[in-house]
Amino acid sequence: MKITYSIVAPVYNEIDNIPELYRRIKEVMDSSGESWEFILVDDGSTDGSTERIRELARKDSTVRPVIFARNFGHQVAITAGWDYARGDAIIIIDADLQDPPETILELAKKWKEGYEVVYAVRAEREGESWFKKFTAALFYRLIYRITDVKIPVDTGDFRLMDRKVVNVLKQMRERHRFPRGMSAWVGFRQTGVEYKRAARYAGVTKYPFKKMLRLALNAITGFSYFPLQVATYFGFFAAGIAILAIPIVAYMRVTGWQAFYGQATTLIAVLFLGGVQLISLGILGEYIGRLYDEAKGRPLYIIREAPEEE
Ligand code: UDP
Ligand code: MG
Q1: Cα 35 to Cα 303: distance, rounded to the nearest angstrom
Q2: Which of 20, 92, 96 to mutate to test the pocket of ligand 1 (most atoms within 8 A of CB)?
Q3: Does ligand 1 lie within 6 Å of residue 96's CB atom?
Q4: How many angstroms separate the Cα of 63 from the Cα of each of 21, 60, 161, 227?
Q5: What pLDDT does 22 receive?
Q6: CA 144, CA 266: separation in Å to the nearest integer?
Q7: pTM check: above 0.85
């Protein structure tokens, strides 16, 4: 059977969202008049979401469950969705109904006009704390400035991608992933559609500050060497100051004009440079740890239950 749309939703403890998500997706997709499948990737839920997903799949064969052996994280769940999707267009959508399913039809319209990546741009965000909005805005702009790929600001993972694009993404098996960066990196014809990001339908966010920080680090280290170069710039700066200071201090000494009194100055200089060196080491460590993970070459995720192939 030929499938036009694959809707992929990563699910981590979203038990109260699943029935409503399914209902709204079904309504929208049935109205499109084209064939579709709904891939629910269960990312190690512990609240009974798994059973809810299985139930749906028993009743409706358009629902295809991909069930992980444990929690692997949102980005990896998206990857599993790419791997199992069979449609000509693949749509990634959050399971908490923050991304309105109705927007899918607008994304599809652009796809039919010939765009291969259609990302949804958050024009407005509802029901999120000022801290989340502020850090998100800062994050998108920072990433835009320091990375080599131009990742459009204020876009999340909610997007439609053509089969051609997903086939390329499937070959990118990097471990610490930033899917929206990867989908910007591949090129193709891309465009955005604005939408209003709704509040969560039920439950609470599964992105505590720690996870957001990790995602930000993955984005930066995955698409830029900037943090590594900072150490070089700083080294030149500190060495430059030293070179300038040597003749000045020597001159002061010779002429007997003493402006510096030993200890405090020395201590500050040592602490400061020591701090900078340790930070640089830590940055190196971030990259080396990632290298080590890649070298191990473990599978990205472990499947407990894969959907049946017809
Ligand atoms: N999610 C996931 N694994 C995780 C964390 C989140 O699959 O480890 C899913 C979650 O169920 C939701 C989507 O990723 O469908 C986005 O998460 P959330 O809504 O909590 O993030 P926020 O919208 O608050 O940034
Ligand atoms: Mg959400």
Answers
A1: 26
A2: 96
A3: yes
A4: 12, 6, 20, 43
A5: 95
A6: 39
A7: no
